[in-house]
Amino acid sequence: xxxxxxxxxxxxxxxxxxxxxxxxxxxxxxxxxxxxxxxxxxxxxxxxxxxxxxxxxxxxxxxxxxxxxxxxxxxxxxxxxxxxxxxxxxxxxxxxxxxxxxxxxxxxxxxxxxxxxxxxxxxxxxxxxxxxxxxxxxxxxxxxxxxxxxxxxxxxxxxxxxxxxxxxxxxxxxxxxxxxxxxxxxxxxxxxxxxxxxxxxxxxxxxxxxxxxxxxxxxxxxxxxxxxxxxxxxxxxxxxxxxxxxxxxxxxxxxxxxxxxxxxxxxxxxxxxxxxxxxxxxxxxxxxxxxxxxxxxxxxxxxxxxxxxxxxxxxxxxxxxxxxxxxxxxxxxxxxxxxxxxxxxxxxxxxxxxxxxxxxxxxxxxxxxxxxxxxxxxxxxxxxxxxxxxxxxxxxxxxxxxxxxxxxxxxxxxxxxxxxxxxxxxxxxxxxxxxxxxxxxxxxxxxxxxxxxxxxxxxxxxxxxxxxxxxxxxxxxxxxxxxxxxxxxxxxxxxxxx
Length: 498
Description:
Layout: E1 3-9, E2 13-19, E3 25-32, E4 44-45, H1 47-65, E5 72-79, E6 85-87, E7 97-98, H2 106-116, H3 119-124, H4 133-143, H5 145-150, E8 153-155, H6 157-166, E9 171-172, H7 173-176, E10 182-183, E11 188-189, H8 191-196, E12 207-208, E13 213-216, H9 219-225, E14 232-234, E15 237-238, H10 239-246, E16 255-259, E17 263-269, E18 281-284, E19 291-297, H11 301-311, H12 317-321, E20 335-337, E21 355-357, H13 365-389, E22 396-401, H14 407-417, E23 420-424, H15 430-441, H16 448-455, E24 458-462, H17 466-493
Parallel strand pairs: 1-5, 5-14, 5-15, 9-12, 16-22, 22-23
Antiparallel strand pairs: 1-2, 2-3, 4-7, 6-8, 10-11, 13-14, 16-17, 17-19, 18-19, 20-21, 23-24
Helix pairs in contact: 1-6, 2-4, 10-15, 11-13, 13-14, 14-17, 15-16
């Protein structure tokens, strides 16, 4: 039997999956690596940790599976978006990577807005947010000019790893769309944006489709990973684009909700001229000449992790969530906003912070836990409503990530979104999307759609309860008021966080 490998380069670990032609994951392996926060609002990683972790994970995947190297037809990648890696002429990383969740670049975002005005949305289709790549490049330009002067290219995380595995520089459209340097509609780097900030267009790598072959493994990498030098390597895509592929979001109206560290609502879009004025993200898909609309909650699963570690560190997640289904909708009048890392959609605000509102002495740990789940889900509904307001009908949503692992939370999503929630039989998220790109690139299927038909199967469907949905509609209205009511307070509190 032949296989493909999907490599998902995440924020905390790299995951590799070995997938057969029926979409079954034969084996998987993860390797963790550290995150550095050298200053407040900074988030960095050593790119070499990604490379070492990927090679070790591939090696252990092959050893555990017992698959022959000749059985692996191809490898492709999914990667954390926006992270900046600057390399010199020899391909050496010049400084630690600045990650997607690094928020040091507020001043650079304002500079981009002032310089480009409406041209930014017209060309890049997205607002200037701290997480994006161009603000990071401008931060280096202003604070570490000697580093930028040595830079030959900028790469995104998975593209750096792929370069180290193959010796080939490239970036796919789905990841390039998150840099603010891509003309998203015309699928080319924007000379106008680059020139506005005195950046040479040569700093941008060549652009490729996500399923395009970008070389084969270097001999020393093949030996270290237990694979053959002839193993085909395909470009891969942004983690959210690959998550969309892995959830079968390959047609109009198809929508997914992914809850990991951050939370994502993503809907397929075929109209390249759609302009939602930056209310949500508009990116190129992993499928050729397709796009997707995306809203992001910065601290989705992270809010639950923070809550558990801070207030119930002795409990497992399963133990923490055991009692939530016995608490009525609304958590006894307790409302949580998941702004603990700032927010992105619909409020691109690094200063806003989370809150519990309505606490009283009758509330238990179960009430607080349910309110955290409800608050995360309310935040994601804000993105769903923006997509619906664009004219799309959303009646079914595929759930992936941590939010797809708990039945009570899945039903809560159905009630809050007022849509059927589909749980997949085998949910591997972006790693599966990366494997699908390798399968399609290797010629296993005539299209990504055919690949999705073979790989993806629904396991359960959670349908909205009309009574619960009505209760949540009322609570959602209150939730939406919290941002405007607390914004000024959080702006004043910001000076005390230094």
